[in-house]
Every structure is written in C-alpha cells, then in structure tokens.
C-alpha cells in the first residue's frame, strides 16, 4: 500500500507569502499522517485571478528558486514525493506548471498544455507530453487541471506506464449545479478507471477577486472508486485528504484483457483530423 495526500488550500493572489505558508503547513500535516506522495494545487505560489502579466511575473518562481529548494530539503529529509502546481518562470517565459520533487531532488517539470479561459494572456502553453517519472514510491505522471479532461492526453501517461496520476488543479465554480459528486471529480474518476491509474487531484478553495472554486479535491483507486474527497463547504484554510492505495503493477483488467495491449491505434487516426 502507498499512502497519498491531496492538499486543498485556500489561496489568495493578494498574499503569495501566505499561500506558501499554507502549502508548507499542508505538506507537514500530510507527512505527520504518513503520506508518501503529496499533491498540492495548481498555481500554489501565486493564486489564479491575474489582471496583468506583471502580476504573474511578480508571483512566479524558478526551478532553482527558494520554494523548490525548500521543498527539495523537505522531500529529502522525509523521503516523500511532492507534486506541486506553480507559476513558473523558465528562460524568461511564464508557465502554468507542475513540478515533481523527491528525496533526490527535482525530477522534472511540466507545462500545462491545455490552457483554460484567460490563461493564454499570461502563460505560454506547454509543448511536451505529460511528465512521467520513476520514484521510490511508484511511477508518477503529472498534468494540470484542464489537461485531465482530454482523454488522449491522459492515455499518453498510461502508455508511459504511469501508476499514479497527480493533478494540481483550480476548478472554477462557473455557476454549475452540483448534485452529489461534482463532475470535475467524476472526470478524474473516469480518467483513473479507463487508464487503470490511481489519481490524486488537489483542488483549491477560498474566494479570490470575485471567483469561487469547486473545492473538490479527490483521491481515487485505479478502478476509479473514490478513496477520499474534500468537504466542499469546509472553511478550513488547509484540508489534507489522505488515503492508502494500491498502485497497479500492470494495465490488465481481466485475465484476457489489458487496457494498453487491447488498443487498436491504427483505427484511431480519424481523431487527429479534427
């Protein structure tokens, strides 16, 4: 069994330092509960509701910046994996990104490909497939928020043999009616189920410049069943979900069926025409 944590944090673009303080608290809480893999929300260091590129620049960090360096030390001392969404500046370009850090250091970073809403005004779109890395606690993939809604994109992580999909996210509340499990969490369940991967999606909370959020962080097993889901009405600044999950060792679903081996990619060419 592997213990995983999804950290739901109240973020505020007006107070980046408080955002990181809450992220640090969430990481500490997750570690105290024995979590081995810890996922933080999208744009943890900055908040989301930007009004200018200069705001993004002021709140972004770098791959060798203080935030990543601090989390590298925490991961090293505690032998944990930290997956975090960050506003990241790389080669003078701004990205809505995710990083994976373990006891050996920074394993890699991923730039969000499918930008949502006004994100194109502030960030450069990524041009690389989902990041998939080996860790002591399993083979982990990461993508960011809207990326998970594209089945082809999630499939790439499965084909690269990811056992766990980590999704930093900021799911906006667009006025949709929510009955039972929010559709954002349902889509994560579906992604986990059809690709036979554990999924850990860390959402955010807290109002920000008139915006509100679905606030439905979720952990699923590799069949898509919910192992833990956030209390959407909680007023807590930090809510840490923890669950023990079995990471899959293959993609078989019956003795005669395998979600990787049963694919017929030669017949799927039509999907690329549109």
CATH topological fold name: Nitrilase/N-carbamoyl-D-aminoacid amidohydrolase
Report the span from N to C terminus. 42 Å
Average pLDDT score: 95
Number of E-state strands: 15
Radius of gyration: 18 Å
Your description of this structure?
- It contains five helices and 15 strands.
- The protein has 274 residues and is an alpha/beta fold.
- It has one domain (2-273): Carbon-nitrogen hydrolase (Nitrilase/N-carbamoyl-D-aminoacid amidohydrolase, 4-Layer Sandwich).
- Strand 11 and strand 12 (226-229) form a beta hairpin.
- The N and C termini lie far apart (42 Å).
- 48% of the residues are buried.
- The mean pLDDT is 95.
List the helices and strands and how they pair.
Elements: E1 2-10, H1 16-32, E2 37-39, H2 53-59, H3 66-78, E3 81-90, E4 93-102, E5 105-111, E6 131-135, E7 138-142, H4 151-159, E8 164-168, H5 183-195, E9 198-202, E10 204-205, E11 218-220, E12 226-229, E13 238-245, E14 252-254, E15 257-258
Parallel strand pairs: 1-2, 1-10, 2-3, 7-8, 8-9
Antiparallel strand pairs: 1-13, 3-4, 4-5, 6-7, 9-11, 11-12, 14-15
Brief digest:
The chain has 274 residues and is of the alpha/beta class. Helix content is 22%, strand content 30%. The chain has one domain: Nitrilase/N-carbamoyl-D-aminoacid amidohydrolase.
């Amino acid at each position: 069994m592997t213990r995983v944590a999804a950290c739901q944090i109240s973020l505020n673009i007006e107070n980046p330092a408080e955002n990181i303080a809450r992220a640090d608290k969430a990481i500490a809480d997750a570690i105290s509960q024995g979590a081995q893999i810890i996922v933080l929300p999208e744009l943890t260091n900055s908040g989301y509701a930007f009004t200018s590129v200069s705001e993004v620049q002021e709140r972004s960090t770098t791959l060798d910046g203080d935030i990543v360096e601090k989390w590298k030390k925490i991961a090293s001392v505690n032998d944990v994996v930290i997956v975090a969404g960050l506003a990241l500046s790389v080669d003078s370009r701004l990205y809505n990104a995710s990083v994976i850090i373990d006891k050996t250091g920074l394993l890699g970073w991923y730039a969000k490909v499918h930008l949502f809403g006004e994100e194109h005004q502030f960030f450069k779109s990524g041009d690389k497939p989902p990041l998939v890395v080996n860790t002591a606690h399993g083979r982990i993939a990461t993508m960011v928020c809207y990326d998970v809604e594209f089945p082809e994109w999630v499939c790439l992580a499965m084909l690269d043999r990811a056992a766990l999909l980590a999704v930093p996210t900021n799911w906006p509340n667009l006025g949709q009616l929510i009955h039972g499990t929010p559709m954002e969490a349902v889509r994560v369940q579906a992604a986990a189920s059809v690709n036979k991967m554990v999924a850990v999606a860390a959402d955010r909370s807290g109002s920000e410049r008139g915006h509100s959020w679905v606030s439905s962080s979720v952990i699923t097993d590799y069949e898509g069943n919910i192992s833990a889901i956030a209390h959407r009405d909680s007023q807590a600044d930090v809510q840490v979900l923890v669950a023990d999950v079995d990471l899959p060792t293959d993609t078989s679903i019956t003795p005669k069926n395998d979600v990787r081996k049963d694919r017929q990619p030669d017949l799927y060419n039509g999907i690329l025409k549109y």
